[in-house]
């Protein structure tokens, strides 16, 4: 069959499809939209965001084929993706770095719209949907941060939940709803997973559709000056080429990051560990501000600053009715934009600097970083269901089965939000003497998650028997 016949058949198939769906009109409307002022590199941010969202959906679907949203298996399933699944490290790396890139590009996109006055000229709804999408992106990153269930994710999310719980009146209730209880557990992980994988993607996809609909309705804002107003180009081919180059550049950068610096994954979360928690980078400015506002003043960074920023963001198109769009003629607006962009970056840099140079925090954070890298480089270890490897060492003593197994599992494998005890004595801070002290009085030992007050009284011989058995769990 020659090329002409193939082309004719494809044209006939396209005509058949168009007659039934109207696809030709939709493609023409998308590709040949007029762009006032012509195609520009400044217009690529929206297309880059759409590409990143599609990439996050694809990589997220790939990972859900292996991921198990439970406190017992989440970390092992993520480690399996990262270390065993062919291409798993690349997929997770793209998803990991893509999440941060989406927030950065979205902020730059909004900053550009603000700088060029693109929210004016009856374009309020475009701006509002964009602002809500930025809020959803922050929720995306927050809910996804917990899913690996490693030390950084567990304690970082705990810090974020604690901050949310400080809000007067609704704070404690909000925290319980968020966590599904008083502490992080499988229920928390299940809620975060459901919101991250189902609810937020649906919300973001719907808002993105509305954003594009409003954009098509109002048309591009065009240049902020008037000299190119009479120049009009079609979206294809000029802007399509520029958008494609931008999307390819973003993808190549993410691939490079995924290969050169694999997505972080530390040891599995241990609620009893003495871990120095830090929130995700996008919450670091609020975390840093909390150092300067103590007591009741902590409400300023917890409630006041976010409410002020997003309030100004949402109301901007309605109180700035000046038709002037040129940045040099809106000096106050440009100064405020610079403050809102430089301020958070400076707070993040200051927080990193203080942590690095702190005599106590610096070495501890460095040690935690080294432990994370060591775990990431170590070969994958399959999870032993039911702690069968521990049975080979020794049978659990009766005192343990009667007093401890309900929370920590019959073979020390852990259960729900309670930590596993396999390998507990391998940790520097958990010697046999420490374990005996914990059995004597866990509250005095200041555990993150103390044992219940109903814990039965054990004889010295029973405690020693339990501790000796725990030491065999490797």
List keywords for this structure.
474 residues, mainly alpha, 63% helix
Describe the model.
The chain is mainly alpha-helical and 474 residues long. Helices cover 63% and strands 1% of the residues. The protein has 19 helices and two strands. The protein has a two-stranded antiparallel sheet. Helix 3 packs antiparallel against helix 5 (88-115) and helix 4 (74-83) packs across helix 5 (88-115). The longest helix has 33 residues, at 186-218. Residues 386-393 have low confidence and may be disordered.
Give a brief outline of the structure:
With 474 residues, the protein is mainly alpha-helical. The protein has helices at 3-21, 23-31, 44-64, 74-83, 88-115, 124-146, 151-165, 171-179, 186-218, 235-260, 284-289, 299-319, 331-357, 361-377, 388-393, 398-403, 405-408, 432-440, 460-470; strands at 34-36, 232-234.
Query: What are the secondary-structure elements, in order, as H or E?
Result: HHEHHHHHHHEHHHHHHHHHH
Helix count, per DSSP? Answer: 19
Q: Mind describing the biggest β-sheet?
A: 2 strands, antiparallel
Distance between the termini: 68 Å
Write down how many β-strands occur, each being a DSSP E stretch of 2 or more residues.
Answer: 2
